[in-house]
């Protein structure tokens, strides 16, 4: 796996003038493990888009895209530029390397344990035209890689049949809701908001609820991320998580009061599914430390019993040896 990831990363970097020097020293040693609840906010702003997230075991990454009138490629950036050709493409940074990883791993996911990657695509330019171009692009990949993306096919009852893939694409930003609802087949789902909770929308259309932290927690519920989370804020957080999970959806907040353990902790404790961060290493290490803490330590009684058992076994062996010598 180690040589595979190195080859893929160097290949992508060599083919693109946007990424810079070879990533040989910092690409993932393997994709054997994933770290749950990790979302790489504006992932493309890191020095090595996608690969830094994978190196840290992230299960979700975010890419903002633009479609320019003078260009047919989807360009990745947070803000518009005068010359779009200076920007990397969604295919170069994400779709092609994910295709290569999924093909080589060949277990239904991106990681060796079968864990898929959620790719949150935030549309920054006009919604319908940008999404149409994205759909065409995803369809071109799906033709040769039918298990690459989650695929949603409208059935006779008006619902959707879903085939899971190695990459779960979800559309955020300027989301063309009506257009996506009109499609008979999609390779992407829709990113919901607070107003979509409790509306009975199937998870095959809205699998994820994402919204500004301050939309939920303002006024008396406001918290600046320092000290202990207020009881009322925690109770509301638990309630929101329960509502979203009750609809078989997952939850993410953006614009957190702090990007630090003081906030990651309450979100982790409340079972928020994706914790937004720009600090990839920090969040990955924090969640792994929490996972280690959840493994129960042997009790003192168990430990003492182990010592006594060992002592008794040793005593019996010595007694047996003495009888043989005698």
From TrEMBL:
| Signal sequence extent | 1-24
Biological process (GO) annotations? lipid metabolic process
In the record, what terms sit under GO molecular function? Answer: phosphoric diester hydrolase activity
UniProt KW Signal keyword: yes
Fetch the PANTHER family from UniProt. ALTERED INHERITANCE OF MITOCHONDRIA PROTEIN 6
What this protein is called in its record is Altered inheritance of mitochondria protein 6
> Which keywords belong to this entry?
Signal
NCBIfam families (UniProt xref): PEP_CTERM
State the SUPFAM superfamilies in the record: PLC-like phosphodiesterases
- The residue ranges crossing the membrane are none
Q: Which InterPro entries match?
A: AIM6_PI-PLC-like_dom, HAT_RTT109-like, Ice-binding_C, PLC-like_Pdiesterase_TIM-brl
């Amino acid at each position: 796996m180690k040589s595979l990831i190195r080859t893929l990363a160097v290949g992508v970097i060599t083919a693109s003038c946007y990424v810079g020097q070879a990533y040989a020293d910092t690409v993932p040693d393997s994709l054997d493990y994933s770290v749950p609840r990790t979302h790489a906010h504006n992932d493309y702003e890191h020095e090595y888009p996608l690969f830094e997230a994978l190196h840290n075991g992230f299960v979700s990454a975010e890419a903002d895209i633009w479609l320019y009138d003078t260009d047919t490629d989807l360009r990745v950036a947070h803000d518009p530029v005068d010359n779009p050709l200076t920007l990397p493409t969604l295919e170069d940074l994400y779709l092609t390397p994910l295709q290569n990883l999924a093909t080589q791993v060949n277990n239904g996911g991106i990681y060796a344990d079968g864990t898929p990657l959620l790719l949150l695509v935030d549309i920054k330019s006009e919604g319908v035209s940008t999404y149409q171009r994205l759909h065409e692009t995803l369809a071109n990949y799906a033709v040769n890689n039918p298990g690459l993306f989650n695929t949603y096919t409208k059935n006779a009852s008006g619902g959707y049949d879903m085939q899971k893939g190695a990459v779960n694409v979800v559309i955020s930003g300027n989301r063309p809701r009506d257009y996506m609802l009109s499609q008979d087949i999609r390779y992407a789902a829709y990113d919901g908001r607070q107003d979509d909770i409790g509306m009975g929308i199937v998870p095959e259309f809205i699998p994820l609820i994402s919204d500004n932290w301050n939309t939920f927690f303002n006024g008396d519920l406001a918290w600046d991320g320092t000290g202990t989370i207020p009881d009322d804020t925690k109770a509301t957080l638990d309630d929101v998580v329960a509502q979203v999970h009750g609809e078989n959806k997952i939850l993410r907040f953006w614009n957190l009061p702090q990007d630090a353990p003081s906030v990651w902790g309450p979100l982790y404790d409340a079972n928020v599914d994706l914790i937004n961060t720009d600090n990839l290493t920090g969040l990955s290490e924090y969640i792994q430390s929490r996972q280690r803490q959840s493994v129960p330590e042997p009790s003192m009684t168990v430990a003492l019993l182990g010592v006594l058992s060992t002592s008794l076994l040793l005593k019996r062996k010595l007694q047996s040896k003495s009888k043989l010598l005698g």
